[in-house]
Amino acid sequence: MEKAYWDQAHSGPLILSHQNILVTPINSLSLSLSLSLSLKTFLRTSVCSYLSIYLSIYLSIYLSTFVISYLSIYVYIYLNLFIYIYLKLFLSLYSIYLYISICLYLPIYLFQTVDNYLFITVDIYLFQTADIYLSIYLSIYLNLFLYFKDVININPLILLSSSSSSLWHVP
């Protein structure tokens, strides 16, 4: 019996599967936390993705095995991707809605110059990127720039830097 225990203890993978330090809950938690933090630097995160960290910690503490911590990492990745895709889709739809609502209030002849075709191309390119906030700001700024350049011939930098609200009224 001692020889069988000695052979089993020195056989390599068996001792790793039964007596490895990674099976303990603390090291399983630290591993899942380190992988979660490294994944958070790789993925674009939102405020809601902290919920997936808490879920990963809860699964690691509650189940406290190395195999199940892989499951918590998969749950974390799934939640991050789901929240990121949903948030990106929502923001892109909102930015397109904002773009259309701004363009509807501008004159129709705004789209008849070469600058506007270039602007529409740049705007469509920005909508396809992940920086939705930047596309919203640039869309508003380019709309205002083209509007004030063509209609009342005023530099929009003066309007953006000025604190007076009377300049925003179109005569």
UniProtKB/TrEMBL annotation:
Keywords in alphabetical order: Membrane, Transmembrane, Transmembrane helix
UniProt name for this protein: Uncharacterized protein
Keyword Transmembrane on entry: yes
Chain segments annotated as transmembrane: 67-87, 94-112, 124-148
Domain of life: Eukaryota
